[in-house]
Design brief:
This protein has 457 residues and is mainly alpha-helical. It has helices at 2-19, 21-24, 28-45, 47-53, 56-65, 74-112, 117-122, 128-146, 148-162, 166-185, 192-199, 205-228, 251-275, 279-298, 304-307, 311-314, 320-338, 341-352, 356-366, 372-382, 396-407, 417-426, 430-456. The chain has a domain at 99-239 and 248-317.
Length: 457
């Protein structure tokens, strides 16, 4: 059947178009959404034929949910099947999207209140080598709570205030990318891929944190030690510039927003572990807390600058294109899952690689030039969670995949959302990063992986 073989081709073309967004000059969100619509359209048009070759597991789940449908004509059954799987897939995807929306809103509220300036004020050293270590370690641990993408935006803003000289700042900016991805790999909310693995039940929060913190730190330390010697010994930077004192937010309110925002993000995995509260609800709970605090504080103010700080105003500043991108990618993967495409790919990889951890290692390298969200989503679709064995929850495979998919994105600057973001903010060229940082990152990636494979498991 032509449509059946066309779907994976469309998916590959879409992923390549996303990877080369700057070349084709089409926003990756538009590409992802278009790809998902085309895949589901092919599924809908040929639903009856797809149902005949669909893996038994999907048909069995469908019939168990609607046993009365066994007696209706095949073409109607196919339509009901598509509708059921589309709604089911959209429901699963929606939990991730609401988590992303809520976390982006919290970070924007903290930022507009000047909460992150508290961090920049605490950094007092002006020795370049020491400052590099301070910024990278702060980035490493901050990305655990804020996620790697939000963290690089905050840390680049801080770096611009601390390091006015561009050539020196490019070194710092590149290392901030690496540190944010390393930190994001050992946190369930540190990257979208780890969020997917956590909310999907593949990895628990406590297991991921305790197991991957050392490999991730090792992965950071290798390029960090090498990069340290790129900076002249004893070289200093300009003193930290004074903060803008015209802000309408007093220090007490700034600190309150920072603590509530970071505290609510930190509580998300805790609440999920203790009472099984879904992560997106935990994030929305933190957003509501900030909403109550800011509305009560600013309700009677007539200052327009103060009104801009209220939560409902922050929604207009949230990057909706990012949400649409995740929607397109995740719904595309759902289409491949229900049509059985990923089952075929899983069987091929299982036959090719005797050691399944090699699959995770290869996918990590692939994430340096392909979107890791798509790779991890596809992998989750290929290998359903088993009760025991290599694909059981908290198994070595899923934990190792979390490490590889996120840190592997640092090998090339285009391999992660944080890298692409800093590439645009600081105008870092692909060649500059490739020449100075790709090899050290690859060494750190390999050393962290070896530490995990040969020492921790």
């Amino acid at each position: 059947m032509f449509s059946y073989y066309l779907m994976p081709i469309i998916f590959i073309i879409g992923i390549l178009a996303i990877a080369f967004e700057d070349v084709i000059r089409v926003n990756k969100a538009a590409t992802a959404v278009c790809m998902s619509i085309v895949l589901w359209m092919l599924f809908i048009i040929n639903a009856e034929e797809f149902l005949l070759i669909n893996p038994p597991v999907h048909a069995r789940q469908f019939f168990d949910a609607f046993p009365a449908l066994r007696e209706i004509p095949t073409h109607q059954l196919a339509f009901e099947f598509v509708e059921f799987k589309l709604v089911e897939g959209l429901g699963d995807v929606a939990t991730t999207l609401f988590f992303v929306l809520g976390s982006m809103a919290i970070i924007d509220i903290i930022d507009t209140h000047g909460g992150f300036s508290i961090i920049s004020k605490a950094i007092t050293t002006n020795v370049q080598r020491k400052l590099l270590w301070v910024l990278c370690l702060v980035t490493f641990f901050m990305s655990v709570l804020l996620g790697n993408l939000a963290t690089v935006i905050v840390m680049i803003a801080i770096a611009r205030r601390l390091i006015p000289e561009r050539n020196t700042r490019l070194i710092f900016s590149s290392m901030i990318i690496i540190a944010s991805n390393a930190g994001g790999s050992w946190s369930p909310i540190g990257d979208v891929t780890t969020l997917l693995l956590w909310t999907g039940g593949n990895v628990s929060a406590l297991h991921q944190i305790t197991t991957l913190v050392l490999p991730a730190l090792l992965m950071l330390l290798v390029p960090l030690c090498i990069t340290t010697f790129m900076l002249p010994k004893g070289a200093t930077v300009e003193p930290l510039t004074a903060t803008d004192e015209t802000s309408p937010v007093e220090d007490k309110m700034r600190r309150r927003v920072l603590y509530i925002g970071l505290g609510s993000l930190a509580m998300v995995p805790v609440l999920q572990t203790l009472i099984e509260l879904p992560p997106f609800m935990g994030v929305l709970l933190g957003l509501v807390a900030l909403w109550f605090v800011t509305d009560r504080r600013y309700a009677h103010s007539t200052d327009e600058r103060v009104q801009e700080l209220r939560v409902h105003r922050s929604f207009s500043r949230v990057d909706i294109s990012t949400v649409f991108f995740f929607l397109g990618i995740l719904m595309s993967v759902q289409a491949l899952i229900v049509t059985g495409q990923l089952t075929i790919m899983a069987n091929f990889l299982s036959d090719t690689f005797a050691d399944k951890n090699i699959i995770a290692l290869v996918l990590g390298v692939c994430s340096s030039f392909l979107d890791n969200v798509a790779l991890v989503s596809a992998t989750m679709g290929m290998y359903p969670i088993a009760e025991s064995g290599i694909f059981a929850a908290d198994s070595a495979f899923w934990t190792f995949l979390a490490y590889c998919a996120v840190t592997g994105g640092s090998i090339l600057i285009i391999g992660s959302a944080s890298g692409v973001t800093v590439m645009g903010m600081e105008k870092i060229s692909f060649g500059y990063y490739l020449k100075k940082f790709s090899l050290p990152v690859l060494l750190g990636y390999a050393l962290g992986a070896a530490f995990y494979l040969f020492i921790l498991i």
